[in-house]
Design goal:
The protein has 502 residues and is of the alpha/beta class. It is built from 22 helices and nine strands. Helices cover 57% and strands 11% of the residues. It is globular and about 100 Å long.
């Protein structure tokens, strides 16, 4: 058996059935079992569980989440163990299935995936959670609350997520306070048992912050960082550096931003091998440079962040530190934002050459991005780049006709600002003829539809018709005159074409 999936539950009838149904694709594709431990439900949770598995056990609740988890781990017969909670739904099992079917699991000891914590039906925060591990004789959970598995030598990040709706109702401050106060004594006991428990210290930092005890929060933050600095290979090592950097970045004073830069530089001196946590740290450092108006340094740090994200995509970042932490800012949306920040930095210091380099790297998918391109080209005085810009637009594989119309409208407005309009339009005219008209036809547009598009499309259409009417001068002239009426800006160009027809 490849996989054992373990859960601990109590009064989860609102979520459990949906959670277990969502596991079906994974369990159908990978030989697996489901183990559910109930800690004292008074609703129909146990009956729902028994509808899906015979491995349902009732266990006593001793204020110890690790003990409860270990009941499911001890009962597991699979090679690997996966933990999931009843209020989490696996939206897409594809990457999990690939992890086992393609043998990735043979090359590592543990794996993380993303947990999206929803505060309502739409808004969520994402974190990386360490939930899968190879089962060995000594593997077990520790910690009364915020229980965790021991660190692994070789980790892997599965690019998939679960929807966690356990916090949807947690917008009530009193409910949040009640849950926090429930966990507080367990965390203190956990720390008393092991004064170097970084997971407990991290949780106590967040607990004190939630309870509006900033002095205590800061004390736990300093305590954790001091311990982490002596335990470089601890899975929470990077977490404390991230927490420390984010904490001071939110203070938002010049002194605090200097502290962020110092702490990130210290991290990279200690931990020279790039890891997943390096992404967040470098991005936080870049933001601090930006807030200090050190735009060149900010650009370099943002570039380093971008490079780390590319390594993340390739699976080349160290994932051995996998533990529950803020999800690394490694996704297409964030990467685009980071590239936008790089461009902003270079524009601010009038380095238009580098700004243009990154503009051409950045996906051009919105009219706002075209406006930025136009701004930099105008400021740089390199108007010949408009031709390259149009070619860049036309290379986009996922561009649609509606977006193309917006680009061309924006371009039309841009070129109206120049007195040497004819000279500027000429190279584009040939490009329009060769590419835009073909683009419109490939998108299934007919004559009547083209008529409703921006005037430049009409010019292209009629000019193209004139070229096709090589053996009928009258028809060709008619099309050229129609094109000239459609947009007077093209009169100097089209008049030469008209004269050539006699």
């Amino acid at each position: 058996m490849k996989l054992s999936i373990g859960m601990i539950v109590k009064n989860e009838s609102a979520h459990l059935r949906n959670c277990l149904i969502a596991l079906h694709p994974l369990m159908d594709a990978v030989e697996s079992e489901l183990i559910i431990a109930d800690t004292g439900s008074t609703d129909d949770t146990i009956q729902i569980a028994k509808d899906f598995t015979n491995n349902v056990m009732e266990i006593p609740w001793n204020n110890d989440f690790a003990e409860a988890r270990n009941h499911t781990l001890k009962a597991a017969k699979g090679e690997w163990f996966m933990a999931i909670d009843a209020d989490e739904y696996l939206e897409d099992a594809t990457e999990f299935i690939k992890f086992f079917k393609e043998g990735i699991y043979k090359r590592c000891d543990g794996a993380s995936y993303y947990q999206r914590n929803y505060s309502d039906e739409v808004t969520y925060q994402q974190c990386l959670v360490f939930r899968l591990c190879k089962i060995t004789p000594d593997i077990k959970y520790s910690g009364y609350v915020h229980e965790c598995l021991p660190p692994v030598k070789v980790g892997f990040v599965i690019n998939a997520h679960v929807r966690h709706h356990g916090h949807v109702s947690d917008t009530d401050p009193e409910l949040i306070k009640k849950k926090t106060l429930r966990n507080y004594p367990m965390l203190l006991k956990r720390l008393a048992d092991n004064p170097n428990d970084l997971t407990a210290i991290r949780s106590l930092f967040y607990t004190c912050w939630t309870l509006n005890e900033p002095d205590n929060a800061k004390r736990y933050l300093d305590m954790g960082l001091a311990i982490a600095q002596k335990n470089v290979n601890h899975p929470s090592f990077v977490s404390f550096y991230i927490m420390y950097a984010v904490h001071y970045s939110k203070i938002d004073t010049p002194e605090a931003h200097r502290k962020v830069i110092t702490i990130v530089d210290e991290f990279h001196k200690i931990k020279q091998k790039p890891s997943i946590g390096s992404i967040d740290l470098m991005c936080t450092k870049a933001a601090s440079h930006f807030d200090l108006k050190e735009y060149h340094a900010a650009a370099l740090s943002y570039i380093a962040t971008h490079d780390l994200i590319q390594l993340y995509y390739k699976g080349e970042l160290d994932a051995s530190e996998i533990t529950t932490l803020l999800a690394p800012m490694a996704n297409e949306s964030t990467d685009n934002i980071i590239m936008g920040n790089i461009i902003s930095c270079y524009i601010t210091i009038n380095d238009y050459d580098n700004a243009l380099v990154w503009l051409f790297k950045k996906p051009l998918q919105r009219i706002k991005e075209f406006t930025r391109f136009n701004e930099v080209i105008t400021l740089s005085g390199k108007l010949e780049l408009y031709e390259h810009l149009l070619k860049h637009i036309l290379k986009l594989s996922d561009i649609n006709i509606k977006l193309m119309d917006k680009f061309i409208n924006a371009f039309d407005k841009t070129i109206r600002n120049y007195s040497f309009i004819v000279k500027l339009i000429q190279p584009f005219f040939e490009l329009y003829q060769k590419t835009i008209y073909g683009f419109l036809i490939r998108n299934g547009l007919k004559y009547d539809e083209i008529k409703s598009l921006p005037s430049v499309h009409q010019v292209v259409y009629y000019a193209q018709m004139a070229d096709l009417a090589q053996h009928d001068t009258t028809v060709a002239v008619q099309h050229i005159k129609t094109a000239m009426r459609a947009d007077s800006r093209f009169v100097p160009i089209l008049s030469a074409k008209l004269r050539s027809k006699g």
